[in-house]
């Protein structure tokens, strides 16, 4: 189950594990207190990830009201692992509700948030600094210029985005290319067998513009583990947020898991981590043992026929104008009777220097 394979993050030279360690539950305060872990409980989880070769760690200033960063900083110092880690944190959410500039994505808050994160993490830089959520109003030009300034100041190595519209990410990346600014290298988004909406625009945009997608919640909040079943009888417990279509997806997922002799959760994580355009899947854990089981999701390959089974069971038909962008529609009316493709297999576009 060792995480001994590393891949480049987006259009960068940064090598990262295919599974990133999510630390949203490190700490017992703030918004995530209900399922938070103390420093003593977080320690074996973190050490397990390091011991198995993982190097990609994700946190945010918002997680457990800053405790996640504080605990993570202590654990990094204990293990002397700062240089080998790809340390990621995020900003956007308010740190002072009385101050309108203490939240959002403006330059003032970006710099303030980073400085506070660095203090809590006990380091002079982070490897990847992400805009946590689109705030709807800050000019994207201000965001990318500030990111570039922070790269030049040596306080971050790479910028990235999380939970933004695809047009916003595309505009941000295009601005960095046009003005020779530090480019975005990653785009963090929710993605799982029951939440595939990002395939419509975000994933192909990331592939075209060099943003590796890091997928959060690959287990859909635990739904894909099958833990919502009652008493082993196969009946789902009351979970009104899940549709009948999503509940039906558990059947083929369980079938694939049984065929391969692994857990439903491992199949779900494997499927996400090996999808086109996905740089890494972010996995959290409540214990070192649970993390070990998640990491074992990379110890097997999904046979083509089983992947097809999952793809078809979880597929969401395109809606509205997106129906016109499908191969079926274009083979019908754009290029009828012809076999038209983008590029031959193995052909890759040139990589932009920056």
Q: Could you walk me through the main structural features you see in this protein, from its secondary elements to its overall organization?
A:
This protein is an alpha/beta fold. The chain has a single domain (6-317), classed as TIM Barrel (Alpha-Beta Barrel), CATH 3.20.20. The protein has eleven helices and twelve strands. The strands form three sheets. An eight-stranded parallel beta barrel has the order 3-4-5-6-7-8-9-12, surrounded by five helices. It has a two-stranded antiparallel sheet with strand order 1-2. Helix 6 links the parallel strand 8 (186-190) and strand 9. Helix 1 (39-51) runs parallel beside helix 9 (288-295), helix 4 (140-152) packs across helix 5 (166-178) and helix 5 runs parallel beside helix 6 (202-209). The longest helix is centred in the C-terminal third of the chain and has 17 residues, at 244-260. The two termini are 36 Å apart.
Basic shape: globular
- Summarize the helix and strand pattern as letters: EEEHEHEHEHEHEHEEEHHEHHH
Proportion in helices: 25-40%
In the residues, how many domains can be counted? 1
Q: What is the CATH topology? A: TIM Barrel
Structural class: alpha/beta
Kindly provide the radius of gyration, computed on alpha-carbon positions and rounded to a whole number of angstroms: 21 Å
CATH architecture: Alpha-Beta Barrel
């Amino acid at each position: 189950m060792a995480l001994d394979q590393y891949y480049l993050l987006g259009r960068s030279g940064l090598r990262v594990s295919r599974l990133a360690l999510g630390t949203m539950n490190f700490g017992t305060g703030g918004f995530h207190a209900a399922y938070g872990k103390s420093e003593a409980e977080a320690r074996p989880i973190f050490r397990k990830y390091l011991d198995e070769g993982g190097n990609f760690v994700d946190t945010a200033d918002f997680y457990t009201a800053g405790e996640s960063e504080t605990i993570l900083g202590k654990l990094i110092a204990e293990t002397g692992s700062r240089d080998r880690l790809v340390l990621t944190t995020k900003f956007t959410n308010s740190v002072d509700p009385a101050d309108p500039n203490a939240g959002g994505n403006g330059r003032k808050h970006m710099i303030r948030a980073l400085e506070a994160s660095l203090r809590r993490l006990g380091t002079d830089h982070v490897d990847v600094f992400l805009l946590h959520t689109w705030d709807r109003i800050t000019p994207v030009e201000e965001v990318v210029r500030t990111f570039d300034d922070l790269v030049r100041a040596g306080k971050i190595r790479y910028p990235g985005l999380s939970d933004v519209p695809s047009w916003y990410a595309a505009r941000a990346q295009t601005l960095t290319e046009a003005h020779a600014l530090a480019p975005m290298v990653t785009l963090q988004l929710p993605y799982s067998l029951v939440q595939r909406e990002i395939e419509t625009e975000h994933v192909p945009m990331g592939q075209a513009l060099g943003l590796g997608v890091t997928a959060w919640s690959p287990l859909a909040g635990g739904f894909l583990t099958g833990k919502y079943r009652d008493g082993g009888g196969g009946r789902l417990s009351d979970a009104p947020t899940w549709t009948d279509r999503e509940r039906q997806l558990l059947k083929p997922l369980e079938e694939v898991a049984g065929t391969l002799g692994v857990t439903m959760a491992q199949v779900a994580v494997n499927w996400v981590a090996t999808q086109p355009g996905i740089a890494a899947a972010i996995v959290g854990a409540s214990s070192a043992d649970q993390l070990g089981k998640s990491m074992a999701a990379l110890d097997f390959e999904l046979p083509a026929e089983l992947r097809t089974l999952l793809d078809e069971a979880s597929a969401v038909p395109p809606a509205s104008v997106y129906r016109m962008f499908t191969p079926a529609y274009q083979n019908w009316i754009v290029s009828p009777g012809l076999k038209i493709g983008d590029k031959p297999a193995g052909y890759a576009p040139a990589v932009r220097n920056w």
